[in-house]
Amino acid sequence: MKLRLSQPLGILISSLMLGAIACSAPNNGESSTPSESPTPKAGGVLNLYSSRHYDSDEELYQKFTEATGIEINLIEGKEEELIERIKSEGANSPADLLMTVDVGNLWRAQEAGILQTIESDVLTEKIPANLRDDENQWFALTKRARVIIYNPDKVKESDLSTYEALAEPQWKGRICIRSSSNVYNQSLVAAKIAELGEADTKAWLTGFVANFARPPEGNDTAQIQAVAAGACDVAIANTYYVGRLIRSEEPADQEVASKVRVFFPNQTEGGTHINISGAGVTANAPNPENAIAFLEFLVTPEAQAVFADGNNEYPVVEAVAANEVVQTLGEFKASELKVEEYGELNPKAVQIMDQAGWK
Fold this sequence. Notes:
Elements: E1 2-4, H1 7-20, E2 45-50, H2 55-68, E3 71-76, H3 79-89, E4 97-101, H4 103-111, E5 117-119, H5 121-126, E6 139-150, E7 175-176, H6 183-196, H7 198-210, H8 220-229, E8 234-238, H9 239-247, H10 251-258, E9 261-263, E10 274-281, H11 288-298, H12 301-309, E11 314-315, H13 324-328, H14 340-344, H15 346-355
Helix pairs in contact: 1-2, 1-11, 6-7, 6-15, 7-15, 9-10
């Protein structure tokens, strides 16, 4: 089944959203469009199942409700829990929209049959083709880059180049990274399978794993902290974890951030690996039109700035700038691989990681 947003509600949303969230958007040096005169509200509800938990998201929910009259009922949880909950609820699920992080989770939701194909000219126009599903069952809303974190006291920037180069003998005992069960790492390996093929990816991973400074443990923040403390010289982590440390009010976090640097690998070999957070309309959504309206709301320039800022990510709409902290990390060439390949190749990635001894 394909679902298309009805034209009247689509026009209503478009006319309201610019003025509705202008006061919440970070100032990127561009003037805001003044709001139009009040328009009648559409009303209704939207049942949102989300693994995101940021105050700025709550502000956007409120602005969407103010603009449309559509009340958002929020259910929060971990990705796996939400997917399983929607599956178990079946045809009677109240969920209208599933919002989660990493394309691997969106792919799992799609494979589980809990998403539906929709049609939205707004979404297909604003979201690049490589950042959405070919069947329009899920769409990226923000981007994140998975980069090399290094200790400038121990590593020169000129020593760094690609993810693949971290398998070379010079990095023996110098790398920290989280476990192979982490979907961020699985997606990185899946991307390498798409780029290099299975054999070359396995050869890379074998050397890469042999260079670990310690058995994988902790989250991305723990890897950055380990680099700052000298437990390892380099790590792989998502950029937004660095952004969180920089913006933290805790002196200890700020100190960690001051001791590390960010390097964007593969700038001449395909681009730095990126992933997404995104959402899809559920297969049995009782309010699918409201779900599409909310997705379209989230790709307006003002909403994109606020939504990405909440987790120090990159907006998915190319014309919208990231926040100032994220911009200080530097400009980079991003991989243009279709991110849905990460999901399709996930089982093979997990297999190769296991064969390479990545715990």
